[in-house]
Each structure stands twice: as C-alpha cells, then as structure tokens.
UniProtKB/TrEMBL annotation:
Keywords, alphabetical: ATP-binding, Nucleotide-binding, Transferase
SMART domains: GuKc (SM00072)
Family: Belongs to the ribose 1,5-bisphosphokinase family.
EC number: 2.7.4.23
Protein name as it appears in the record: Ribose 1,5-bisphosphate phosphokinase PhnN
C-alpha cells in the first residue's frame, strides 16, 4: 500500500517552503503533493492552494469533494478527494495537514506516516513576522495555538523534523526519511 505522508507543524514552521523545495525530488519518486483548498484570499493562498469563499467551501464539503477537512486559525482547509485515486494508483501522497486533525486523519488512512516540522518559539515568531502574511494579532493567535498544541500527547509514532537550520538541510533530511519508508506492496 502506498503512503499518505501527513506533514504537520505550526503555522510558520516551514511546511509550504519544505514542500515547494522538495517538489521536484518527490515528483521524481512518483510522489504527489495535494493542493489544499483554503478559505483564504487568492493572493494570500499562494499558488499551491486553491482559494474559495466560505460558501463555496461548504458546498464542496457537502458534495464530498474533500478527503479530509478541518478548521483552524479562522479558516477552513480541505484536501481534495483526488488523493484517494492517487493512493489507489500506487502513488505516495503528501498532504499539508493539521496537528489537531491528526487523529481523524489516522482513522481514515491506516497507511498514514506523520511528520512534525519543528522550530523553536522565537524562530517561529521571527518567521511569521518576516513572511508578512498575517497581521500582528493573527501572528499572536498562531503562536498561542502553537504553544497550546506543543504537547507530545497523540504524537506517538510521529517523525520529528527540525527546520531551525537551512531549508536545504531540512529537504535533505526529509528525502532521506522518505527513501527509508517501508517498501510499498501493490494492493496490500
Ligand atoms: N529553514 C528555513 N530557514 C529560513 N527561513 C525559512 C525556513 N523555512 C521556512 N522559512 C521561511 O519561514 C516563513 C514561513 O514558512 P512557510 O513555509 O510559509 O510555513 P508554513 O507553511 O508552515 O506556515 C516563510 O517566510 C519562509 O520563507
Ligand atoms: O492544527 P494545527 O497544526 O495548528 O494546524 C492548523 C492549520 O494551521 C496551519 O495553516 P495556516 O493557515 O497557518 O497555513 P500555513 O500552513 O500555510 O501557514 C496548518 O497548515 C493547518 O492547516
């Protein structure tokens, strides 16, 4: 069975950066990266996410368009159902997930491999500030959420990847870990 790689980490820890930097190497390994649907403005959503308003998100969810969905930071996030086709076709898939939603994701995907991207609190604040996407108030709320979810509870079996150093180093560690995942057995 192919792997569903569920990448988590506080907002600002570098999930999007890591995925973008590893994109070509993952693609070369036959691994797909899911494009999230987010109720964030098109400008702030970036190229690797689809921006919708809350009404459209609710409609898509109602139609069963999402394999996984959650709410956090005042936003709704959805992972398109197409990931089930990719997994069924033997591809590994990476999703940019939520720590709070991990139990639900694990319940749905027995083949889930969880990764937690970590940076210390001071670095996180600095990165959120330099990214400049959120207001000071939104950044404070993200740091509060990060501190609240920083416990080890429910994180058993999660591989931790430190992203305090260079992104290149994190990508190299991530790919090394990916290459060491158990062999995929078609149809198992
Ligand atoms: N290893 C790194 N070193 C320095 N800056 C980084 C590193 N990883 C990410 N960043 C920067 O930190 C900010 C947050 O990264 P981002 O990928 O948007 O995080 P996330 O998707 O987890 O919210 C961005 O401005 C990004 O350029
Ligand atoms: O339960 P948590 O682990 O806190 O995660 C909740 C959400 O927060 C993050 O999104 P955010 O809006 O910050 O977008 P980003 O990942 O692009 O920073 C993360 O990607 C999750 O979708």
């Amino acid at each position: 069975m192919s792997h569903l790689i569920y990448l988590m980490g506080p907002s600002g820890s570098g999930k999007d950066s890591l995925l973008n930097a590893a994109r070509d190497s993952l693609q070369a390994r036959g691994c797909y990266i899911a494009r999230r649907v987010i109720t964030r403005s098109a400008e702030a959503a970036g190229e690797d996410a689809v921006s919708v308003d809350a009404q459209e998100f609710a409609r898509l969810k109602e139609q069963g368009a999402f394999a996984l969905s959650w709410q956090a930071n005042g936003l709704a996030y959805g992972i398109p159902r197409v990931i089930d086709d990719w997994l069924g076709g033997g591809h590994d898939v990476v999703v940019n997930g939520s720590r709070a939603h991990l139990p639900a994701a694990r319940a749905r995907y027995s083949q889930l491999q969880a990764v937690l991207l970590e940076v210390d609190e001071a670095v996180l604040r600095q990165r959120l500030l330099s990214r400049g996407r959120e207001s000071a108030k939104e950044i404070d709320a993200r740091l509060e959420r990060s501190a609240r979810l920083r416990s080890d509870a429910g994180m058993e079996g999660v591989w931790r990847l430190d992203n305090s150093d260079s992104l290149e180093m994190s990508v190299a560690h991530f790919l090394q870990w990916f290459d060491g995942l158990p062999v995929r057995h078609p149809g198992s």
